[in-house]
Amino acid sequence: MLQRAVASRVALVPTVFRFFIVVAILAGIAFAGVFALATLVEPQPREMTVTIPSSRLPSK
Predict the structure, then answer these.
(1) Is residue 29 part of a domain?
(2) 7-60 confidence digits (pLDDT tens)
(3) 20 FRET partner, CA 20 to 30 A, in 28, 36, 42, 52?
(4) Rounded to 5 degrees, what are φ and ψ at 42?
């Protein structure tokens, strides 16, 4: 009876190997998403204006 309870409990615990496989698959999906965004999406260039306060400019 005790062996059956221990065996069923051990079967429910995920192994380290299974954990690493799941992490590797998720990392691969994330890498594929970043790679697809970097290669397929073209950014649109546009003008940018930044206002600098006069207090940050060097005084003469």
Answers:
(1) yes
(2) 555 556 678 889 999 999 999 999 999 999 999 999 899 999 999 888 888 876
(3) 36
(4) -105, 120
Asked if residue 25 is part of any domain, the answer here is yes
Q: Which tokens belong to 6? A: 């221990």
Taking the model in full, what pTM does it have?
0.53
The domain of 37 spans 14-43
CB burial string 29-51: b at 16+ within 10 A, e below: eeeeeeeeeeeeeeeeeeeeeee
Residue 4 within a domain: no
Distance (Å, whole) CA 10 – CA 16 = 13
Q: Is residue 20 part of a domain?
A: yes
Which amino acid is present at 60? K
